[in-house]
């Protein structure tokens, strides 16, 4: 890692005032990666530019002489600058989620709200589902996002076609009771969910969205979920 950072450190110390700007860096990176870049932002660290592309952050210098992938740590605070930026860059407007495509569960007063994108064959999703089952006074929107295997799509369709979608989901994810339906109803919602997930650059499950728009990828502990819900109690 230090070998990767050294050229950037030398550039910051020895170079003349930069002639580059975000637009020129964006154009150069797109030319090298042959992918559209969502944004480029100059950072206060070592003359680095933050490049947001394909749902991840990479860093480069003004000449785009190298691309650095990994966490950038502020040496004073020892906090991950990359993680904080990812939270902002991947945040959404919660009301923009197509909630009618999700399996909806309301418990208690339902005032605390969050949404998840999950694959029915995802082990981490099953682990999180057992924790989520302990929550009360929540409204949970679960988007069936079958990206792991053809069987994931079949199970998603079966769950969506069940008379009680929430029960079918929990029976499978929490209790291991496989859905018994044929999955032969209108499953357009599952197809649209897959399209939505791709647009949101969701590359893994589970992915959780809270009412303030923050996205957290991966299974998160129940205590963290409770903390976020306490910050955004209103429906």
Low-confidence stretches: 1-19
Please give the order of strands in the largest beta sheet. Answer: 5-7-6-8-9
Q: Name the CATH superfamily classification of the largest domain.
A: Glutaredoxin
Identify the overall geometry: elongated
Number of strands: 9
CATH topology of the largest domain: Glutaredoxin
Chain oligomer state: single chain
What share of residues is helical?
Answer: 25-40%
SSE order: HHEEEEHEEHEHHHEEH
| Mean of residue pLDDT values | 89
Give me the secondary-structure category.
alpha+beta
Descriptive report:
It is a single chain. This protein is of the alpha+beta class and 235 residues long. It folds into 2 domains: 2-81, Disulphide bond isomerase, DsbC/G, N-terminal (Nuclear Transport Factor 2, Chain: A), CATH 3.10.450; 94-231, 3-Layer(aba) Sandwich (Glutaredoxin), CATH 3.40.30. Helix content is 37%, strand content 19%. It contains 8 helices and 9 strands. The chain has helices at residues 2-14, 22-33, 81-89, 123-132, 150-161, 165-173, 188-199, 222-231, and strands at residues 37-42, 49-53, 56-60, 67-69, 103-107, 112-118, 138-144, 207-210, 215-217. The strands form 2 sheets. A 5-stranded mixed β-sheet has the order 5-7-6-8-9, sandwiched between helices. Strands 1-2-3-4 form a 4-stranded antiparallel β-sheet, with helices on both faces. It starts with a helix and ends with a helix. Residues 1-19 have low confidence and may be disordered.
């Amino acid at each position: 890692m230090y070998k990767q950072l050294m050229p950037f450190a030398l550039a910051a110390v020895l170079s003349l005032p930069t002639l580059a700007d975000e637009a020129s860096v964006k154009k150069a990176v797109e030319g090298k990666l042959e992918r559209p870049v969502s944004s480029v932002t100059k950072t206060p660290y070592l003359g680095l530019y933050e490049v947001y592309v394909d749902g991840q952050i990479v860093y480069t210098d003004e000449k785009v002489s190298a691309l650095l992938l990994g966490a950038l740590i502020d040496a004073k605070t020892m906090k991950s600058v990359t993680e904080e930026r990812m939270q902002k860059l991947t945040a959404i407007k919660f009301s923009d989620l197509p909630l009618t495509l999700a399996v909806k569960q309301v418990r208690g007063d339902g005032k605390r709200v969050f949404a998840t994108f999950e694959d029915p064959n995802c082990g981490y999703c099953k682990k999180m589902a057992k924790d989520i089952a302990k929550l009360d006074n929540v409204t949970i929107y679960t988007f069936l996002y079958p990206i792991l295997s053809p069987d994931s799509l079949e199970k998603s369709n079966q769950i969506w076609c069940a008379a009680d979608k929430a029960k079918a989901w929990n029976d499978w994810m929490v209790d291991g009771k496989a859905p018994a339906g044929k999955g032969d109803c209108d499953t357009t919602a599952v197809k649209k969910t897959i399209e939505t997930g791709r647009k949101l650059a969701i590359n893994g499950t589970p992915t959780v969205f809270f009412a303030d728009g923050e996205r957290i990828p991966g299974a998160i502990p129940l205590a963290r979920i409770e903390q976020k819900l306490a910050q955004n109690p209103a429906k």
